[in-house]
Amino acid sequence: xxxxxxxxxxxxxxxxxxxxxxxxxxxxxxxxxxxxxxxxxxxxxxxxxxxxxxxxxxxxxxxxxxxxxxxxxxxxxxxxxxxxxxxxxxxxxxxxxxxxxxxxxxxxxxxxxxxxxxxxxxxxxxxxxxxxxxxxxxxxxxxxxxxxxxxxxxxxxxxxxxxxxxxxxxxxxxxxxxxxxxxxxxxxxxxxxxxxxxxxxxxxxxxxxxxxxxxxxxxxxxxxxxxxxxxxxxxxxxxxxxxxxxxxxxxxxxxxxxxxxxxxxxxxxxxxxxxxxxxxxxxxxxxxxx
Amino acid sequence: xxxxxxxxxxxxxxxxxxxxxxxxxxxxxxxxxxxxxxxxxxxxxxxxxxxxxxxxxxxxxxxxxxxxxxxxxxxxxxxxxxxxxxxxxxxxxxxxxxxxxxxxxxxxxxxxxxxxxxxxxxxxxxxxxxxxxxxxxxxxxxxxxxxxxxxxxxxxxxxxxxxxxxxxxxxxxxxxxxxxxxxxxxxxxxxxxxxxxxxxxxxxxxxxxxxxxxxxxxxxxxxxxxxxxxxxxxxxxxxxxxxxxxxxxxxxxxxxxxxxxxxxxxxxxxxxxxxxxxxxxxxxxxxxxxxxxxxxxxxxxxxxxxxxxxxxxxxxxxxxxxxxxxxxxxxxxxxxxxxxxxxxxxxxxxxxxxxxxxxxxxxxxxxxxxxxxxxxxxxxxxxxxxxxxxxxxxxxxxxxxxxxxxxxxxxxxxxxxxxxxxxxxxxxxxxxxxxxxxxxxxxxxxx
Lengths: 290, 447
Hints:
The complex is a heterodimer.
Chain A: H1 2-33, H2 40-57, H3 60-86, H4 90-112, H5 139-161, H6 163-173, H7 175-180, H8 185-211, H9 219-232, H10 237-257, H11 265-277
Helix pairs in contact in A: 1-5, 1-6, 1-8, 1-9, 1-10, 2-3, 2-4, 2-8, 2-9, 3-8, 5-6, 5-8, 6-8, 9-10
Chain B: H1 7-42, E1 49-55, H2 60-78, E2 87-93, H3 98-111, E3 116-119, H4 123-135, E4 140-142, H5 149-152, H6 159-162, E5 165-167, H7 173-191, E6 195-201, H8 207-219, E7 223-230, H9 237-246, E8 251-256, H10 262-271, E9 276-281, E10 303-305, H11 319-330, H12 343-362, H13 371-379, E11 383-384, E12 389-390, E13 418-421, E14 427-431
Parallel strand pairs in B: 1-2, 1-3, 3-4, 4-5, 6-7, 6-8, 8-9
Antiparallel strand pairs in B: 10-13, 11-12, 13-14
Helix pairs in contact in B: 1-4, 2-12, 3-4, 7-8, 12-13
C-alpha cells in the first residue's frame, strides 16, 4: 500500500510538472491582455516539431534552446501580426486564434503527414523497484520535472523581482493603474507573448520527447490548459501551478483506483464543480480587474 | 491518425444524419431514375469505366491504398483492360470523417457515375456510406475496415438491400480474435508465456476483442492477469506500464489503432520491462515507424498482425513481385509508405483484380444495372491475390459477402499473419507456420 502511494505520488508529480508548463503561458496571456489564445496548443505543437527536426541534425543541447527561441518568436509574431489588431474584440480574437490552430494542423499535415515524428531529448530510464516504487520513469520525465520548476522559478523571479517583470504583474492587476504609472501596455503584452511562447516551446519539447509529435497533438494540451486555468483562477500563475498538480494527481488517482479508461473523468467533475460553485477558481482574487 | 479519435462522437452525428439522408435519398433516387433513363436513350456506357477509391488521404494507409489502386488499374489497362475497357480511377479523401465520406461518395456515385467503389478505412466511415451505395446499387468493396457489424448488421439482416457490399479484407474482427488467440497459444509453446495483460483502445472496433479474447485465451490455457481499455483521448503510459509490471504478465496483448503505442514502446525499451508486446498496433504497421525519423528502434521486438504481412513473406506467388514493384515505383516518394503499402493497399490491389475477373466473366462493365449477375459472379470468385486467397461467404452464412478466412491443416486461420520488428527497418513474419520467415524473438533483456 505504501508502495502504491509512493508510485502514485511519483507519477503524479512528473505529469503535473508538464501540465504546469503547458498552462502557465496560457494563463499569463489571459491575465495580461484578457486574450484567450486558442493557438496556445499549436505553439506547443510547433515546439515539438521544431525540436524534432532540429534534433535530427544537431545535438539536443543545441536544439533545445534554439527551439525555445523559435517558438517564442512564433508567439511574439502571432501577437504582432494578428492578435494586437483584434485583441479588443474577444470574439474575433477567439476565432482568429482558432483559425491559426487549425491552419497549423494543415501545415503540419502537408509538411510531415499524419504519422508521428519521434525525437529524443535524453534517453534512459531508472528502475525504482528496488526502492519499493513500482515504476521505471524515463530520464526525460525527470528532466521535464526539472525544466518545469526552473521555468517556474525564473518566471517568479522575473515577475516579482525585476521592474520589467513587475510591469507585467501590474498590467495584469489593473491596466488603467499600470498605464497611469507609466507602463507601456503594448510592450508588456509583447513580452508576455514572448515568454508564453518560450514556455510553450519547452512544453512541446517534453511532450514530443515522451510521446512523439502528431498534427493533432495540440488538442489535449489546450483542453488541459483550459481546465487548469479555470480551476486555478483565471490569470493567476500560482493558481495554474497548483491546479496543474490538482489535475495531475486526480488523473493519477483515477487511473490507479478506477481504471485507465476513466483518466479524465474526475478532473471534468471537479471542473464542473468549480464552474458552478467557485467560478473565480482557487486564486482568482489575486488580480483585480478593471 | 489521431484524427480518428473523434470517430465515436462523429458516429453519433451519423445517427442523426441518416434521417436527413433518407429524405434526401428519396429525391435523389428519383433523379437517378431519370438519369438512367436518359442514359438508355443516349446509348449509355460511353462515359467509360470509372472506379471510385475512398480513403483518408492524410493517412499513410490511405496513401498506400491509392498507390495500389493506381498500380492495379494501370497494369490491367495495359493487359487488355476490364472486359476490354480501360478504367479510370477517381480517388476521394474521406478524411476519416463520416459526413465527409458521405459527401464524396455522393459525388462519386452521382457525378462521376462510378461502376465500383473501393476502399474506406475506419469502420465508422465505412458504415456511414453503406446506405448510399446500397440505394444506388453500386458495388462496394471494403478493403480497410474489419468490423463484423458492417456485414452482419447490413447484408446479414437485409440481404437484398445490401447485397452490393463485399469485404475483400482484412478478415473480420471475430476471425481476427480467434487467430490472435491461436498466436498467443503459439507464444506459450515457444516461450512458456501464459500470463496475459490485455489492453485495448476504448473504441468500437475493439469491442469484439473485449468480448471474445478472455474466453478464447482461457480455452487455450492462458490466463488474463490484467485487462483495461485505455482512453483514446490521451493516455499516460507510465501508470499503465507499472500496472502491467505489477501483474507479472509474460506479455501485453494490445489492440491499438487510435492510440499510438510509441510512448509505451519507448518506456518498454528504456525501462527494460520483462514482458513482450504483442497483438495489433495499426500505427506500428507504417514501414518507417521504427526508423530514424520516427521511434528509432523503440518498436523493435513488438509484433502486430496485418494482412499482407507487410510484404516480407511470400504469402502467395504474387506477393513478392507486387511489393518489389511498389517499392520500385515509390521508394523515392515524399510521403510514406514507401517500401510497401500498409495492409489496406494489399486488399485494395486484390479488390481491383477481383473486379477485373468478375467483369470479364460478366462481359459488361455496367455493374450497376446488372447487380444480381455481378453478385453471382463475385460469389464464384476464388482468386489468388497478394494478401492471400480471396473468396466470399454466400447469402446463407453468418457473414454474407465477407471474405473467407483461410485455414491450415490444423484448422488455425492463416490469412492474418503476425509480423515482428527486428530492427529499425527490418520486419519478419513470425506467424503462422505457413508464412513464417523467422521465429518470434524475445527481447534480449528478457533472455
